[in-house]
Design a protein that fits this description.
Keywords: Membrane, Transmembrane, Transmembrane helix. The protein is mostly helical. It has helices spanning 2-8, 12-31, 37-51, 58-81.
Length: 85
């Protein structure tokens, strides 16, 4: 773990913050398929943007793209499953 922090130039607190942001973002992206796609999809996008803000991590970019795709799929499925709502 210390080697990864040294390579990325992150301190321990920055590493924990980034990990929590990514975990929250991926969880929100998956929840966007089933529950409130727009709300959870946007949470995933925001977490991905914040995770890539200060360093050049591609994981946050993948999170942003995945959140948008899963939000779109969730909105499409939600419209077909519950057409009156």
């Amino acid at each position: 773990m210390n080697n990864i922090q040294n390579i990325l130039g992150l301190s321990a607190s920055e590493s924990i913050k980034k990990t929590l942001l990514l975990l929250t973002g991926w969880t929100s992206a998956v929840l966007a398929l089933f529950i409130f796609p727009f709300v959870f999809g946007m949470m995933g996008v925001i977490c991905g943007i914040l995770a890539t803000k200060n360093n050049r991590s591609r994981i946050g970019i993948y999170l942003v793209v995945s959140s948008i795709v899963l939000m779109g799929v969730g909105l499409a499925l939600n419209a077909r499953i519950m057409p009156g709502i």
